[in-house]
């Protein structure tokens, strides 16, 4: 069953959506921020279940207060094969570090023209904050693209103490 909850945070009220299983597990499918491009929208038939996301909410609170540097959660493995490869590369970017779109393209075997495809895949990341696409920057060191806005990307990088080149 699809479940959802809202969690307050310094970037606004986050919407968490997931699948709840009979064994009590909840697998996170989406984390969106207010005003985000392509944000999830609560649908009829979904169940409001804040308790299903207590662990994730606690990790988010700890991250936003500087106590957590890597999320430990189960999330849905949606997306195309290419998107999943890009997202795994993004998952591997350490807290407080940044890499370029070109570096991600090279890591997934798509250098050169693949940079644009990498940017598209990153732009379709359904798990903002927990999958750290905010750590990917332009080749010139400038902040580029973030579905929830560049101001939020800058705030997340600032929270992590990441030096933007």
UniProtKB/TrEMBL annotation:
Record's function text: Involved in the cellular defense against the biological effects of O6-methylguanine (O6-MeG) and O4-methylthymine (O4-MeT) in DNA. Repairs the methylated nucleobase in DNA by stoichiometrically transferring the methyl group to a cysteine residue in the enzyme. This is a suicide reaction: the enzyme is irreversibly inactivated.
Nucleus keyword on record: no
Pfam families reported for this sequence: DNA_binding_1 (PF01035)
Catalytic class of the enzyme: transferase
Classification via InterPro entries: MethylDNA_cys_MeTrfase_DNA-bd (IPR014048), MethylDNA_cys_MeTrfase_DNAb (IPR036217), MGMT (IPR023546), MGMT_N_sf (IPR036631), WH-like_DNA-bd_sf (IPR036388)
Taxon lineage: Bacteria, Bacillati, Actinomycetota, Actinomycetes, Kitasatosporales
Domain Methylated-DNA-[protein]-cysteine S-methyltransferase DNA binding: 81-162
Protein name, entry field: Methylated-DNA--protein-cysteine methyltransferase
Keyword Membrane assigned: no
GO CC annotations on file: cytoplasm
């Amino acid at each position: 069953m699809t479940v959802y909850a809202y969690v307050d945070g310094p970037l606004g009220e986050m919407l968490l959506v997931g699948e709840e299983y009979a064994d009590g597990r909840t697998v996170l499918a989406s984390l969106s921020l207010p005003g985000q491009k392509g944000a999830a929208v609560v649908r009829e038939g979904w169940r409001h279940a804040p308790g299903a996301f207590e662990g994730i909410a606690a990790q988010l609170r700890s991250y936003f207060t500087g106590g957590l540097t890597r999320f430990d959660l189960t999330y849905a493995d949606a997306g195309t094969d290419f998107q999943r490869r890009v997202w795994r590369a993004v998952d591997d970017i350490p807290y407080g570090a940044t890499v370029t779109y070109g570096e991600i393209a090279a890591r997934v075997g798509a250098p050169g023209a693949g940079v644009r495809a990498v940017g598209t895949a990153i732009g379709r990341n359904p798990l903002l904050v927990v999958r750290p696409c905010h750590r990917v920057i332009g080749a010139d060191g400038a902040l580029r693209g973030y579905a929830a806005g560049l101001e939020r990307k800058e705030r997340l990088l600032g929270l992590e103490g990441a030096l933007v080149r």
